[in-house]
């Protein structure tokens, strides 16, 4: 085998190994959106989209640094959520909540909670948006 042939073979093997590592990392890093019921069955990290159950309240435990609330998913199922951290900004006015975490003993242990707040421009004519001028 010539020296250039060896380089081509080693280069091909290196590219194949790097491609395999890349695809493996991509597959393990993708976190699917699911329902509460399916999250209970999967037992892995998932994301649940829903709304805060306001009549269930919410509470921040400063000693433990845990924020607790209840989340209702798109199917109407409700689950208690525990976020390891403080209450997200604008939580009270959020129109929807995305919780990322996993189910543990009937509680969704969230590592992250994102809120989607109503647009302050919703329902306004385009020429009345703050920062715009009408000509």
Can you describe this structure in just a few lines?
The chain is of the alpha+beta class and 135 residues long.
Question: How do the helices and strands line up, and which of them pair or pack?
Answer:
Blueprint: H1 3-29, E1 33-34, H2 36-42, E2 46-52, E3 58-61, E4 66-73, E5 78-84, E6 96-104, E7 107-116
Parallel strand pairs: 1-2, 5-7
Antiparallel strand pairs: 2-4, 2-6, 3-4, 4-5, 6-7
Describe this structure in words.
The protein has about 140 residues and is an alpha+beta fold. It folds into 2 domains: about 1-30; about 30-115, Nucleic acid-binding proteins (OB fold (Dihydrolipoamide Acetyltransferase, E2P), Beta Barrel), CATH 2.40.50. Helices cover about 25% and strands about 35% of the residues. The chain has helices at about 5-30, 35-40, and strands at about 35, 45-50, 60, 65-75, 80-85, 95-105, 105-115. The longest helix has 27 residues, at about 5-30. The radius of gyration is 23 Å and the shape is elongated.
